[in-house]
Amino acid sequence: MTSHLQIDVSFDLICPWCLIGKVSLEQAISRLSEQYPAVGVDVTWHGVQLLPDVPKDGLPFQAVYERRLGGPQARSLRQRQVNDAAAKVGLHIDFDRIKTFPNTAKAHALLAFMATFSGGDDYDKMLDRLFHGYFFFGEDIGSDELLYDIAQAAGIGREELGECLERPVPQTLIDRRPLQVSGVPHYVLNQKTEISGAQSPEQLFALMQNLLREKTP
Questions:
Q1: pTM
Q2: Residue range 121-169, pLDDT digits in tens
Q3: What kind and span of H or E run contains 8?
Q4: From CA 175, how far away is CA 109, in angstroms rounded?
Q5: Any bridge partners for residue 59, and if so which?
Q6: Phi, psi dihedrals of residue 87, rounded to the nearest 5°
Q7: By CB atoms within 10 Å of each CB, which of 52, 84, 169, 176 scores lowest?
Q8: Is the bond preceding residue 168 a cis peptide, omega within 30 degrees?
Q9: What domains sit in the chain, N to C, each tagged with a CATH number?
Q10: Taking CA 140 as the corner, what is the angle to CA 135 and CA 143, rounded to the nearest 5 degrees?
C-alpha cells in the first residue's frame, strides 16, 4: 500500500473554481488523515497566469465577464453557478465587492518568493490571504501597495520584496507546472493521475484512496 501522496495543483488567483478546489482538497485531505493517519500528503502549488495580457492596473471586473460570457444576464447566471458550488464547501464569493479584474503576475511572483523565503504553512497562508482578499473583500491583488502590505505582514521587508516586484516577472516564477495544462484547477496525484476542475471533496478523496490501495513496487 502506498504510504505517501504527492499532489501538484495548478491554479490562478483570479479563478473562483481554484479557491473552491483548494477548500475541497483541504477537506479531502482532512478526511484522509482521519482514516489513514500514517499516510503523508504533500501539496505543491503551481501558479498559472491565465490572462497575462490584462493591463497592469487591471480592468473593470463586471465588464470583463459580461464581454467574455455575452452580457449581464449570462454573467449573473455564471456567478450564481459558482456560488452554488462554493456553498457546498462552506464558501460564499462576494462578486459585488470585486471592482477590478487584476493582472496576477506580481501576486504570483510574491507567492513564488514566499516559496523560497519560507514555504510550507506560510506559503499556504499567503495563498489563502490572496484568495480571500480578492473573492471575499474585493481587494485589488494586482496592486503593488497591497502586495507590499501582505508581504510585510508575512515578515518580508519592503526592500527585500521590492526587487522582486519591480523587475519584469520571469515566466518561471509564475508557471511552475510539472505538465502543460489547459485549465485550472488541475491536479496531478503521484505524477500519474490527473484531473481538472473544481472537484468535490468526495471525488478527490476517492482518487486519493484508490492511489493508496495500489501496491508499492
A1: 0.90
A2: 899 999 999 999 999 999 999 999 999 999 999 988 878 777 777 665 5
A3: strand 4-11
A4: 10
A5: 101
A6: -60, -30
A7: 84
A8: no
A9: 1-48+175-217 (3.40.30.10)
A10: 150
